[in-house]
C-alpha cells in the first residue's frame, strides 16, 4: 500500500472525480458513508455525538456524517466553527442537506462550546488534508477545549492541526484523537512515534479512489500488508533438501548474554533455514548445545567474547552478527576482518552496530556490500548522529541507505525498512508486547534465515519484520502484552508462517 502526500491525495480525489464522471459531492458522500460505517461498529446508536466542522471539505464530511448518524438514531449536534462565509461548495451543499431537526451551533468563540457528558463522542471535522498553516486563534482554542473535554474524539481523515507529511509547527494546536479514520490510504504522520498522542488508533476505510491513479503516482513510501507478504513467500519445493535453504552463520552471544545467541538461533531455525551454525565464546558451548540441538555449535578461542572468525567462511550463505557480543576491542577487530573478507550478505545488529558506529575505519568498509542493519532508534543515532524529530530520522534513514547502498531496518512500533533506492516500507504488525529484551535478537534470527533462503534483501527485510510482528500479534491472543517474552514470539513463529501460507477461510 502506497503512502501519498496531502497534495497527492487531493490529486487522487480530483482524478477520481474526473475519470468516474462523479461529482465531488458524491465522493464526499462516499467518504461520509465509509466513516459512518466504522463509527456505527464502534459506538451504539443513541450516543451523544458532537461534530465540529471547519470551513473546508473536511467540515463538509462532518456535516454529511451528522446527517447520516442522525438517520441512524444517534443524538447529533453539529457545530460550525469560525467564519463559514467562504466555506467550500461541498460544505455548503451538505449544510443545506442537514435535516431541520439538526440545528448547528455557530462557534465564534470557544465559550460557545458546552460541557459534554463524560460518555459523549466528539467528531473532529475541523481540518483535513487542506490544512496549510499552524492552527492558532479561535480554531486553536476550540482544539484545546475539545482536548480537555474528556470526550472520546474520533478524527475524520486526520486529527485537525496535524500536518499529514511534514513536521507540524510547535505553535499549532492539534486534536488528540482516540481514533482516526483515514480515507483510502494512511498518512505518513500516522506511522511516526511522535504523533502517538494525536492519532490514537487509526483505521483506513476505502472510498473508491482511482486505483489506476494510486498505482501510477510516484511515491517512495509504502506500508507492507499481509497480501504483500503472502505474495513474496515461496513454497518449499518437493525435491528440495536442507542444502536448498541456505547455511546461516550466527556470530552472537557473550559472557552473560549467551541467551541472545539462543534466541537468534531458535528464531532462525523456526524461519526455515536449511542449516545453522552458531559460533559462541567458549562459555556458551554447553548452553547452545543443550538449548538449540538443531544448530551446529562452534566455539571461539576466547572464553567470553567474539574474537575470531570461523574457518571455511565460504560455506555460509549469510551471516547474522551482533546480539549479545559486547563491545570489546578484540570484537571490533573481528568485525573489521569480517567486513574485509565476507562476500555474502551480513545482517548487522546490536553491538555490531555500536562498534561500527564508533569507528570511521569500519564505516569505510561498508561500501558496496550486501548489508542489512537492524538498529533500534538509539543504535541508529549512534550510526548517523542525533536526529531532531521523526521526519529528520526518516531523512537520515534514506541518506544512510543511499550512501552505503545498504538496507536498514529501523525498529519501532511501525518498523521502517529503508532501501538503497530510497524506498521506505513501514510495517503494520506488532504490538507493545514486543517492548521487552530479546525480541530484537529474534528479529535478527528471522531476517538471517530469510536471506539464507535466497530471498532478496528487500524481501527478507519486509517479510521478516512482518512475520516478527505477526507472531507477537498471535501471541497476544493467549499471552497478552504484559507477559509476552521474546521466547513467546519464537513459539508463535510457526502459527505466523502458517497464517501466511495457509490463510484461514
Ligand atoms: N476533495 C474531495 O473531493 C474530497 C475531500 N474529502 C475531505 O476533504 C478534506 C480536504 O478538504 P479541503 O481540501 O477543503 O481542506 P480542509 O482540510 O477541509 O481545510 C481547508 C480549509 O481550511 C482552511 N485552513 C487551512 N488551514 C487553516 C488553519 N491553520 N487555520 C485556519 N484555517 C485553515 C482553509 O482556508 P484558507 O487557507 O483558504 O484560509 C480552507 O477553508 C479531506 O481531508 C477529506 O476529509 C473527502 O470528502 C473525500 C472527497
Ligand atoms: N511498542 C512496540 N510496538 C511494536 N513493536 C515494538 C514495540 N516496541 C518494540 N517493538 C519491536 O521489538 C523489537 C525490539 O528490538 P530491540 O530494541 O533491538 O530489543 P533487544 O535488543 O532487547 O532484542 C523490535 O523489532 C521493535 O520493532
Ligand atoms: K479532521
From TrEMBL:
Function: Catalyzes the epimerization of the S- and R-forms of NAD(P)HX, a damaged form of NAD(P)H that is a result of enzymatic or heat-dependent hydration. This is a prerequisite for the S-specific NAD(P)H-hydrate dehydratase to allow the repair of both epimers of NAD(P)HX.
Organism field: Pontibacter flavimaris
Cofactor binding: number and manner: Binds 1 potassium ion per subunit.
Catalytic function, reaction form: (6S)-NADPHX + ADP = AMP + phosphate + NADPH + H(+); (6R)-NADPHX = (6S)-NADPHX; (6S)-NADHX + ADP = AMP + phosphate + NADH + H(+); (6R)-NADHX = (6S)-NADHX
Similarity comment text for this entry: In the N-terminal section; belongs to the NnrE/AIBP family. Belongs to the NnrD/CARKD family.
Protein name: Bifunctional NAD(P)H-hydrate repair enzyme
Residues the entry annotates as binding K(+): 58, 124, 160
Subunit text: Homotetramer.
GO BP annotations, alphabetical order: metabolite repair; nicotinamide nucleotide metabolic process
Domain YjeF C-terminal: 225-500
Residues engaged in binding (6S)-NADPHX: 57-61, 128-134, 139, 157, 260, 324, 376, 441
Signal peptide positions (record): none
Keyword ATP-binding set for record: yes
Boundaries of every YjeF N-terminal domain copy: 9-215
EC number: 4.2.1.136, 5.1.99.6
Binding site for AMP: 411-415, 440
GO MF term set: ADP-dependent NAD(P)H-hydrate dehydratase activity; ATP binding; metal ion binding; NAD(P)HX epimerase activity
Pfam family, one: Carb_kinase
Cofactor section: K(+); Mg(2+)
